[in-house]
Design brief:
This is one of the proteins that bind and probably mediate the attachment of the 5S RNA into the large ribosomal subunit, where it forms part of the central protuberance. The chain is of the alpha+beta class and about 120 residues long. Helices cover about 40% and strands about 20% of the residues. The chain is built from three helices and four strands.
């Protein structure tokens, strides 16, 4: 498939996902997305095509208190790790998408690791 016309972000996202599939060894994928206002995380089992768990700053219990900052990303990381434990998942591969590993993305990953997820 040609990458002509793709943005650098889209190319980075594709390159990252391809590398994860090669090294993932069948583990579920912790995929994140951040926008200007929110941050989202979900655990995806690519073999079955299912989302096993999800967390974001849009959830009803935190919608009014959180936003697009590091504290909100830390809270989402903790909640996704708890949801993973409930679903019986302990090891994942981290899919940062096309986002660089700093700021909110790094805060989410660090919180998820501290809460018990292995990646």
């Amino acid at each position: 498939m040609s990458t002509k016309g793709m943005s650098l972000f889209e190319k980075r996202r594709r390159r990252n996902r391809t590398a994860l599939r090669a090294r993932g060894s069948g583990r579920p994928r912790l995929s994140i997305h951040r926008s200007g206002r929110h941050i989202y995380a979900q655990i995806i089992d690519d073999a079955r095509g299912l989302t096993l768990a999800a967390a974001s700053t849009l959830e009803k219990d935190v919608r009014d208190t959180s936003g697009a900052n590091i504290d909100a990303a830390t809270a989402v990381g903790t909640r996704i790790a708890e949801a993973c434990k409930a679903a019986g998942v302990t090891q994942v591969v981290f899919d940062r998408g096309g986002f660089l590993f700093h700021g909110r993305v790094k805060a989410l990953a660090t919180a998820a690791r501290e809460a018990g997820l292995e990646f």
